[in-house]
Each structure stands twice: as structure tokens, then as C-alpha cells.
Amino acid sequence: MDVAWYLVLSALLFATGAAGVLLRRSPIVILLCLELMLNAGNLALVAFSRSTGNQDGQIFALIVMVVAACEVVVGLGLIVAMFRRRLPLNVDELRNMRG
Amino acid sequence: MTATAYAWLVLMFPLLGSIVIAINFRALPGRSAGWIATAAIGLAFACSIGALIQLLAEPGDSRQLTSTLWTYAQGGGLDIKLGILVDPLSVFMCLVVTGVSTLIHLYSVSYLTSDRGFARYFSYLNFFVFSMLLLILAGNFVLLIVGWAFVGFASYALISFWYRRETATKAGMKAFVINVIGDVGLVLAAFFVFRDLGSFDFPTVFSAANQQFHTNQGVVVAICLLICVGAFAKSAQLPLHTWLPDAMEGPTPVSALIHAATMVTAGVYLIARMHPLFELAPTAADIAAFVGLATLLFAGTVALAVTDLKRIIAYSTCSQIGYMIMGVAIGAYSAGLFHLMTHAFFKALLFMAAGSVIGAMAGNQNIDRMSGFRKAMPFTSVLLLIGSFALAGFPGMSGFFSKDEILTFAANRGGMYWIFAAGGYLGAFLTAFYAFRIGFRVTRGEPCPEARALEEGHIAHGEPMNPATGEPEDTDVGFPGPEHHIAEREVPMRVAMGILGFLAIVGGLIQIPGVDNAIENFLDGTFADSRFASTAPTSGDAWLGLAVGAAISIAGIALAYYCYVARPGTTARLVERFGPVHSFLKNKWYFDEAFDSLIYRPLVGVGRFANNVFERLVVEGIVAGAVGAVRGAGVVVRGAQSGFVRAYALLLVGGFAALALYFLIVSH
Amino acid sequence: MIQIAFFFGAIGALGGAIAVVALRNPFYSVLALIVHLVALAGLFLLLHAQFVAAAQVVVYAGAVMVLYVFVAAYVGQQEEPLYEPIAGQQFLGPLLGVAIFVELSIAILGTALSSVSSRGPTIPLGFGSPSSIGNLLLEKFLIVFEGASMLLLVAAVAAIVLAGQRRGDAEEGV
């Protein structure tokens, strides 16, 4: 099985995730789409690790998982905080950064 | 254990002591901080002896050992290690520094007992010794600079030890700033060395320098002059000497440490360490020698006029360091270092005796108010006189052999080097006179009130005040403690002074021309490649020089005896007669004032001009223009700031896509 | 055989991904992501990354997604409005997604990168196994490993600070 297949799949997943981030408005789903993008990156890392025969790429993937876990924890913490303060769970409503 | 292992231990003990005391300063009861510090330095001294024994076991031509603990940076031609160089020179310096420092620590245990900053003091003191040892043992320029800067910091901390005393903090800053000037010189020199020789390690640099530079090539002269800037700043040579007298604001044992063991000898060591470079740059070496000569004469004359007991000794140090700098610059390496050693003994002794006297005077340092301590303080008086005799170079004392060896070497090189010999003998006359200006003024004459009080059995206690300005003080932390201590009543002080007194008498006997040559033979391991090794004077010449030195020394002492003991009041008449000269000397040749009007005021003027004209017109114009431009751009960009996070994300992804497109196009 | 496995995995991963983006209920999106992650773990196995695959299933599809499920259940069903307030987003979003995919595909298949895209070398026994990954993590990448654990700690503290009950919240009756 050619490694290029995996890479193309990874690109497809990444593009899907990016489109999801741009289109969806629920913060939970945006987080999920970020997960998609990170996992697409992981797939590419593992595929490269296979094609070079070097396990360093797998370590990278594991570290990316750790970073993703951190991001999830903080992101979900934010969502819970928003919910507690009765803020609408819609990123378009959070427009305090308007210039 | 190998010599390098011992050397690492020498570094470790003071650092450990400093850290332990610093961390536990609240928990350490009574004098224990002082004893820990003393033990740390004492162990370092023991390890120095161990290193000496191990080094002597090596064959004569392989006594240069290096050791690396770890590597900081490697790559791109750069190779910086935490490495030390153990050779006869560094071991010799370690012995002097740790030996004398141990005694100074011992003395301080008593002297600062009542001070509220007792533990802080010893932490600093250990750190000071550690820094100096790091400087000495450094095996490359980088570590040397680290030690060099540490010494500067430690001196700042100790000079400003009584940090609520404004004169002390200012003196500390002055010392620090002048030291930094020296640091800059040294760092620039290291850059030059690295640029042209491609290494920081001393052995590599020296062997590469011999191949790459020819004698008096511009760059090597520049390197040596920059090194000299560093050496002069640390060793208080003209014109960077002004910090040293002010450094007397620190506690007296600190003065002893700065003057005898650490700090000021660093410049001498540096020039001796860099001797392969200096021999390639005779011009720079001669300039250094002339600066040494000028300093020794200048400081000698000032020491005739100032009235502060500690400042007299301070100028005496300037002057004696001038001898050493002159010595190592003209190639008399072992003689210069020999003088460094004997000077460490008698100068530490003089400061300790002065500290004891100042203790009896309740902190007052004015020599005009001191007299007749002969009966009140017999022990201190005797040791003060021993120190004075050694400083004056009285025949048989330690200063006698070492100073004259430098001068004989200068005379023996002939040519213009005769100037150094003649100037040195003139300086020796001044030295003998001011040494006994101290000795006779303090011990002889009618007892002053404080001496009388002491004869009756109690130490005078005045209101606490700043001896320099007379401002009232309290005795809490940041000021000197309430109690004063004198050697007569404190065993540790007596022990320290007694040992130093013994060394000041016999220290010179280890190198007598024609009899034995211990130091020169030992240091030969470092200086064997010197081109002056063969020009050392014969023992006949040396004895002739010693005879001249003896005559001059005795003449100076006799004149001092005439002026201060036989006919007291002679000097007062001289002062009346030569008022302008006296005030010129008393104001230290107006060096501080000259710096003020030549450097400080013009710089302030330039700064003011820059502030008024340049800043207002040019800088503010540019700033206003920039602000306008940014504001205009902001109006344009603000449109994009819709506040929708997803819109920003869209821009981000769009940017990413555009960038990817760019790379795709470029890569085709 | 491997091809078949790959296509099953790819379809699972892609289907899960599209479902995450397309489903309107966040709770279903979370479940779709679990499908995606499990399928991806299968692909990792095909690439001889056993340990990463196991971690993916246990840590990711297991622990992390449970967190998602809890939060999604906690905040309840909140349907997104259909109205799109940002002009052009509806149109530019998918376009950029497609653009990125095309660009990346060209990069992978049509440029110098294609030289690395092959089956890869024959790999030694134990490639990607827990023991060899463990050796790498605790020797070559020890500092990275420790840094990651520090990061996790910081993130945990941050989550407590963000989501924890505060005095101000109590007054609001939350």
C-alpha cells in the first residue's frame, strides 16, 4: 500500500476539518473539527514515519495527542464557563473583539 | 586524587559555604556562620595544598593540567567549556588566596560579631573567595570573564555591606562601574582573541598566538592593551584607581580581603597569565610597566598626605600593586608574584591591625586623632610595626626580598628599564616613610583619650556615626554593629594576626638570591617559555640591589622617626610651608574632580543637548509621523475586525492556502 | 487484503469526519468523531504503529471523547441558527477547504515529495511496539516527554481555574 494514499487521505481529512471550523458555530463542534485537523496531521506523521522507517514520527504523533488533550481540556473548560455564565453557545455572539 | 580533582574541590568548598550560609542565615546561631565560612575556606586551602603536592609529583615539563566538567557550547568553531587549568601559577595563586582568606575569615568571626548582618557578610565573603578562585583556575577566556564579573559583583556587595550608609553604597557603585569598564576591555580582548586565533582555551590560544602573530603586530598590541584595561580596573592602576580608596567604606576585613588576597591581585595575575601575549607585544607591556610606575609614585605621594588610616593603607596598596604590575610587565614574573605573596601577608596584617585600632577608636579612622596606643594595645602595636617594617622593606623582612627582586630585574634589563629601577627605589623611599607615618603616629606619642580609656580597661564607645561624614546612625542591620572589637580581647583576631605577623617576617626567606629559589623554580612550569627567563639577574647583582634597597628603606624609616617621634610637629611646619602641595596631595591629585569635569559633566551636557534639541525635533518628529501612519493604516484595517472569530479563521485559512499556492509555484 | 483494510479504514475516517461537520446536533458530532478516531486507529495499525493506535483508542476515543460526551450532555442540545451572519462565509469556507485539499494533494503527488512516498523500507521487528516507543520516550525524547507532562499539568490547572465554581458565580445562583 503506497504511503501516498495515506497522505492524500490525511489532506482530505485536514481540509474537511478546516471547512468545519469555518462553517460551524457551536464551540463544541469547532473543537471537534480542530480534533479532526490534528488527527489528520497525526496520520501524516505516522505515514511519514512508516515511509522513512524511523519511529520518531510516532513519538511526534503521541506528543500531538498530548497537546490535543490539553487543548480539549482548556476548550471544554471555556465552554463550561460560558454555559455557567449563561452566555450563548455560539461563537458569532462573542464579538467583543470587534475593532 | 589528581591535582585537577583537588582544584575542583578548591572551587567547590567556598561556593558550598556561601550557599549553605545564604540559605540557612536565619537558622545559624551565634557565630556559627562565621565558623562555617572559615572552615570552607580552610578546606579550600587544604585542597590547594593537595593540588600542590600532586602537581609537584608530576615531572617538571608536564605541569599543565586541564580538566573539563562539561561543555557549554560546541559547534560552528565555538568550543566553550567549564574547564580549569591547573599549573604552577594557578596553584600558587590558589595557595595565597585561600591561605590569606582563611585568616581574614577567622579575624572577621570576631570583628563582626555584633553586626546584624553577620551571616550575610560571611556568605558574601565566601562568594568573593569563590569568584576569585574561579578567575584564577579558569582554563579559558569565558570562564575567566565569568569569575572576573563575579569578583566585581562580590566587591560591590561587600563594599556596600552597610547598605544604609549612603557613602558606602555610593562607593560600592563606583567600584562596580569602574570594574565594568575593565570587564568591557577584557571581553573585547577575548573577542579579538577568538576572531584571530579561533579558540578561547588558554593553551590553544598561546600556542596559536606564537605561530600567528609576529612581534608587535597591531592586533596583539590591541589585545594586550584591552587586557590591560581590565587589569588596571581590577588592580586600581591609573587612571582607574579611584574606586579603591572609596572601597574603604566596607568593613575593615573586607578591605584586607580586597587588598591582600582577592580582587586587586587579579590584574597582576591576569598579566602573568597572559604573558605569552604580552611578550609578543612589548609595546603594550612597556605601557603597562609605565602605568605601574606612575601609579606607584602617585599613590606613594598621596599616602603621605591623606589622614584616614585605612585610606593611607589603600593608597599603599595601589602603590605596591604598581610594583607588581611593573614587575610582571617587564618580565619579572616570579618576582612580581613573589611580591604579590609577601604583600598579601603584610597588607592583610596591616589592615587587621588597623581594624583593631579603629575598634579601639570607636570607629574613628582619622590618623590625626590617634596616638600612643603602645601601652594600651601592645599586641596590636607590635604587629602594626611588623607590618610597617615589612611594607617598608626593612632588611630581612618579607617585603625586602620581593620588592628589590623586581627592581634588580629592571636594572638588569638595562636601557630604558633603568627608569623603572630608579622610580621603584624612589617609591621605596616614599613607602618606608608613609609606612612609619602609620606605625609611629599610632603607637608613639602621648596617648589619646581613647588609648587612655583602654589603659583603664574599657573600650571607648562613641555615638554611632558615619566616620566619613559624621552623620548619626543606629546599630541595626545595614549599619555597623554596636560593639567594637580589638585584638587584645579576641582570640581569633590574635591568632589570625599572629600567623600573618610570622609570615610577614619570614615569608621572604623562601626566595633569597643565591641561597634558595623556591618560588622561581616552582613557577618555572608556567614561565619556562618566557624569553626573559635567561635575563634574570645573577645573585651578585641581586645582593647589590638588596643593599641599595636596605639603605633606602632605613633612610625612609629614619626620616619618619625624625618627623614623628624625635621632632613631632615637623610635618605640621612642612604643611604650612608647602600648603598648595599638601592640598594637592591630600585631594589625591584631584583625580575625582578631573573625572567629574572631564567626563561626567561633558556627558551630562551632551545628554541635555540631546534631550532638548535632538529629542524634541528629530525623534518626536519621527514618532509623530509614525503614529500618523499607523493610525491611518489602522482605519483601513479596522474594517476587517468584524469580531467574528470564524471570519478571522477564514482569513487564516485563506492565508495558509495562498502561502501553499506560493510554495507550489516556487517549487516548480 | 491490506488494500481492502485501508479502504474500509479510509471510508470510516472520512465518513466520520464528514458526519462531524455535517450533523446539526453536537452530541451526534461527538459520536461521529469517535467513529472517525477508531477508524484512524485501524489505519495506524496498518502503518505498523501499534502503540499509537492503542493510545488513540484508549486515550482519545476513550478518555477524551468521554469528556466531550459529558460536556455535550451538560450544556444540552443547542441547535445552531441557520442564518449565516458573515457575508460570503457559507461560500468561501468550503471553497478554501477544497483549495487546501487540492494544493496538498499536488504537493504530495506531483512534487519532490513523491520521492518519499513509497512503500517505505522493510522495517525491523518491533517497529512501533510499546517497548521501542517507550525506549525512545524515556531516552532520546525524555525532555520532550517531561515537557508534555508539564503541559498537561498546566492545562489541568487552567481547566480548574476556568470552569471551577467561583464566589461570584455562587451569588448569581449558578
Descriptive overview:
The complex is a heterotrimer of chains A (about 100), B (about 675) and C (about 170). By secondary structure, chain A is mainly α. Chain A starts with a helix and ends in a 15-residue tail after the last helix. Chain A has helices spanning about 5-25, 25-50, 55-85. In chain A, helix 1 (about 5-25) packs antiparallel against helix 2. In chain A, about 75% of the residues lie in helices and about 0% in strands. Chain B has about 675 residues and is mainly alpha-helical. Helix content of chain B is about 70%, strand content about 5%. Chain B contains 27 helices and four strands. Chain B has helices at about 5-25, 30-55, 90-110, 120-135, 140-160, 165-195, 200-210, 220-235, 245, 250-260, 265-275, 275-280, 280-305, 310-330, 335-360, 375, 380-390, 400-415, 420-445, 450-455, 490-505, 520-525, 540-565, 570-575, 580-585, 590-640, 645-665; strands at about 65-75, 80-85, 510, 515. A two-stranded antiparallel ribbon of chain B has the order 1-2. Chain B has a two-stranded antiparallel sheet with strand order 3-4. The longest helix of chain B has about 50 residues, at about 590-640. The termini of chain B are far apart. In chain B, about 55% of the residues are buried. The mean pLDDT of chain B is about 80. With about 170 residues, chain C is mainly alpha-helical. Helix content of chain C is about 70%, strand content about 0%. Chain C has seven helices and no strands. Chain C has helices at about 1-20, 25-45, 50-75, 90-110, 130-140, 140-165, 165-170. In chain C, helix 1 (about 1-20) packs antiparallel against helix 2 and helix 2 packs antiparallel against helix 3 (about 50-75). The longest helix of chain C has 26 residues, at about 50-75. The N and C termini of chain C lie far apart (about 55 Å). The mean pLDDT of chain C is about 85. Classes of the chains: A mainly alpha (about 100), B mainly alpha (about 675), C mainly alpha (about 170). The interface between A and C is large, with 72 and 88 residues.
